[in-house]
Amino acid sequence: MPRSQRSPLLLAGLLATAGVAHFANPRQFDALVPSALPGKPRTWTYASGAVELALAAGVALPRTRRTAALATAAFFVGVFPANVKMAVDWRDRPAPQKAAALGRLPLQLPLVLWARNVANNGKGRA
C-alpha cells in the first residue's frame, strides 16, 4: 500500500488510540483541562475522547475523509491550550517529564499539517 494510502489510516489509528486512552485512563487527561472551561474536567475528557473516536472513523472512511481530516486539523488547534497548560503545570517536574510536556507543543504543528495533507489528498474521492 503506497504511503499516501496509509497516511489516513495511520492518522485514524492515532486518533482512535488517543480517544480510547481518554476513556481508559481519564484522570491523566482531566489534569490537562484548562480551568477556564465550564463544567467538570471529566466531562471535557470524555467529550474530547468521543470526538477523537468520531474523527478517527471519519478519517478512516474515504467518503468522509476530507471533512473529517479538516475537522481533525481544527481539533488539533483547539486542544493546543491543554498542551500549554501541561507544559506550565509540569515545569517543576523531573527533566524527562518536563521535556515530554514541552515536546508536545511543537508536535501540534506537524499534526495539523498531517491532517490538512490527508484532507487535500482526499479531494475528489468518493
Automatic annotation (TrEMBL):
Pfam families: MauE. The keyword Translocase does not apply. Residues 9-78 form the Methylamine utilisation protein MauE domain. The keyword Cell membrane does not apply. Residues 1-23 form the signal peptide. It is a multi-pass membrane protein. Keywords: Membrane, Signal, Transmembrane, Transmembrane helix. The chain crosses the membrane at residues 43-61. It is found in: Membrane. It comes from the Bacteria. Its main location: membrane. This is Methylamine utilisation protein MauE domain-containing protein. It comes from Streptomyces justiciae.
